Predict the 3D structure of the following.
Amino acid sequence: MDREFGWNDEITEEGGNYEPLPEGNYDFTVAKVERARSQGKNKLPPCNMAKVTFTVWGADDKREITVNFVLHSSLEWKLSQLFLSVSMKKHGEPLRMDWTGIIGKKGKCQVIIRKYVKNDGTEGVTNDIKYFYAYDEQVTTVSPIVAQSAPQQYVQPTYPPQYNTQPAMPNTATPNNWTPGSF
């Protein structure tokens, strides 16, 4: 279980046991968006960039995958793909990008395994998102295993007895047996 450590907590995990999700189609939730700036590369000048972190739900685990979205006209298709996948953009209609509104949105994506060289020179593997499926694409995704709990038995609640807590009205009968407040 993930948790925050205290300053003096004991630690044991040393890493090295990261297993990427198998390649396939998965459901995701947008977990976080950070505003950043790309350095520019090849034909792209330095630009605004959104670093979007997705929680991708596997069969029995989840992974966080971060994808950089460079805000440049040559990559507008990738931005549209993202917003189509979470139903914020409709086909053929323009969209004003809402980076705070995208947090918590759900969609479907294709996950791949990418190899890379670690800082120590060894080869590592990680997950990347290759494709975001539009909201109207029919895609079968890996289904997370849902822990089945014992069926809940309904128990009739018990309530304490109700007592009349209003003060008794003094008998102030008048002629004709009329009592104020009585019907």
Q: What stands out?
A: The first strand starts at residue 24 and ends at 37. Strands lie at 24-37, 48-57, 62-70, 106-117, 123-133.
